[in-house]
Write a structure and sequence with these properties.
This protein is mainly alpha-helical. The chain contains 16 helices and 2 strands.
Length: 362
């Protein structure tokens, strides 16, 4: 009997869905992430101390200035870096955290790619090493940069990844994982129950993304409302009530993030608050017209996402590809419609949704 059990165990060793085979290129991928960690640690440490005044970035503000002035309250990175700074008044811990975060983004990239490939039914046709390669390459893809046209990269192009911004990096990490959880919940919701685990995962991860920076969540709220309306209009009229209830439950996963956005606005822009006297969030299209080299920025910033869409146009009938397209489109809408008055008008806080949209669609 024991011999039979051993034979069955040996036969099904790799067929139960839990065993993982390790290949040589897995070690190459791990080594590449180790190199990325080391390089990012050096880069982020130099940014944190603004080494020789040649590494201007938001990181210096969050790792050094804010812990001393306590200006940035109620934000994930602000609170975390203040905690790090209070340990020994150094910035090394913040640099280590961001280096680990970069490795986390690479892994999150891989999980997103793996999810799309598996859901399309190509998991046995697409080599794992190709997904690992693109999980690394994704960080460097997106915007086409032409020095002759764009004098300064960050100011004049649609960046798809911001190395200078720890809040954007944290938002990116949580948004990628939150997108997977949301799609797991949303895909095929018509014919099955909504799994509580994916609902909780979506709510928690999207909240952390919002706590880091609200850009992605503003995209997501607009995109979800649009997708849900289209679903209800195009779907079977006999099941519209059942589908509405399920979509409502799915949408409720965004409530914690929506409440945080409202709190952040009231804590920042109402009378008597930090920016309430001279700053406000407004709807204004004029700032787009005044954008430096607008046509060039749109062409070179959106070229890769548009090519991706055109070469895979049939796939965008699938819900997960529609999700990517809607998030990208709402990121562009957010950038075009919203801005801030006063000094904060130059901060570009409503460009981060566009940044994630370009990154995710690419």
């Amino acid at each position: 009997m024991q011999d039979i059990d051993r034979k069955l165990l040996k036969k099904n060793r790799f067929s139960d869905g839990y065993s993982v085979r390790i290949y040589p290129w897995d070690f190459v991928w791990a080594a590449a992430m180790g190199v990325m960690f080391a390089l990012c640690l050096e880069l982020f440490y130099r940014m944190a101390v603004n080494y020789n005044h040649k590494y201007p970035s938001d990181l210096y503000y969050y790792a050094v200035q804010n812990p001393r002035t306590h200006d940035e309250k109620g934000r994930f990175i602000g609170e975390l870096f203040e905690f790090f700074y209070n340990i020994n008044e150094e910035v090394f811990e913040a640099a280590v955290f961001l280096a680990f975060l970069m490795v986390g983004i690479i892994i999150a990239n891989y999980l997103v790619i793996y999810y799309f490939v598996k859901d399309d039914g190509y998991i046995n046709k697409v080599p794992r090493y190709s997904m690992q390669f693109f999980s690394l390459a994704a960080i460097f893809m997106g915007t086409i940069y032409v020095p002759v046209i764009f004098e300064r990269y960050y100011k004049h192009t649609f960046k798809s990844f911001a190395w200078h911004s720890p809040t954007q990096q944290a938002m990116m990490f949580f948004a990628l994982l939150g997108s997977i959880c949301f799609l797991k919940m949303y895909q095929g919701y018509e014919d099955r129950k909504i799994r509580f685990g994916w609902w909780i995962g979506s709510a928690v991860l999207i909240f952390f993304s919002t706590w880091s920076k609200p850009g992605f969540t503003i995209n997501l709220i607009f995109a979800v409302v649009l997708m849900f309306i289209v679903d209800l209009i195009r779907g079977n009229k006999k099941t519209i009530g059942k589908r509405f209830v399920k979509l409502f439950i799915i949408g409720c996963s965004l409530i914690p993030s929506g409440l945080y956005i409202l709190w952040l606005h009231n804590a920042s822009f109402t009378e008597g608050t930090q920016y309430g006297e001279e700053h406000a969030v407004i709807i204004d299209f004029a700032h787009v017209i005044e954008y430096d080299n607008l046509i060039g920025a749109i062409i070179f910033g959106c070229a890769i996402p548009i090519v991706v869409y055109l070469f895979n146009i049939e796939k965008f009938k699938d819900k997960k590809y529609k999700f990517a397209l809607y998030v990208f489109a709402m990121g562009m809408v957010q950038w075009m419609l919203f801005t801030e008055t006063g000094k904060r008008g130059n901060y570009g806080n409503f460009t981060w949704g566009r940044t994630y949209g370009i990154y995710f669609l690419t």
